[in-house]
């Protein structure tokens, strides 16, 4: 629902300290000025709660999807990221 996000997929990533981090793979609406981590965390906290807010944002060109439209999370790790914060 964020105005600067065209598409998004959220997945977990292994983390030594926390066990798992919430990672948002974001296709920005305007690649020249993508929304940052602080902006997206604040937006998500207001709607979902602090535990579900992303700890990391990875800007990608596209979200890989199956023929039925489901995001293929395992391919997101292999996809080149445009920006990682």
Offer a few descriptive terms.
single chain; 85 residues; alpha+beta; 2 helices; 35% strand
Query: Which shape, going by the Cα principal axes?
Result: globular
Class from helix and strand fractions: alpha+beta
Name the helicity range: 10-25%
Beta strands, count = 4
Number of helical elements: 2
How confident overall, as mean pLDDT?
85
User: Which ranges are low-confidence, i.e. pLDDT below 50, for 5 or more consecutive residues?
Assistant: none
Indicate the proportion of strand residues: 35-45%
Strand neighbour order, sheet with most strands: 1-2-3-4
N- to C-terminal distance = 21 Å
Q: What value does the Rg take, in angstroms?
A: 13 Å
Following the backbone from N to C, one meets helices and strands in this order, namely EEHEHE
Summarize the biggest pleated sheet.
Answer: 4 strands, mixed
Please tell me about this protein's structure.
By secondary structure, the chain is of the alpha+beta class. The chain has helices at residues 37-48, 73-76; strands spanning 5-15, 19-28, 56-60, 81-84. A 4-stranded mixed sheet has the order 1-2-3-4, with no helix packed on it. The chain is globular. The two termini are 21 Å apart.
Quick gist of this model?
This protein is an alpha+beta fold and 85 residues long. It has helices spanning 37-48, 73-76; strands at residues 5-15, 19-28, 56-60, 81-84. It has two helices and four strands, in the order E-E-H-E-H-E.
């Amino acid at each position: 629902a964020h105005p600067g996000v065209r598409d998004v997929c959220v997945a977990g990533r292994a983390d030594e300290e926390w066990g798992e981090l919430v990672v948002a793979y974001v296709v920005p609406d305007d690649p020249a000025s993508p929304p940052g981590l602080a902006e997206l965390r604040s937006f998500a906290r207001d709607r979902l709660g602090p535990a579900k807010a992303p700890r990391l944002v990875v800007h990608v060109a596209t979200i890989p999807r199956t023929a039925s439209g489901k995001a293929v999370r395992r391919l997101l790790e292999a996809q080149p990221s445009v920006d990682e914060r």
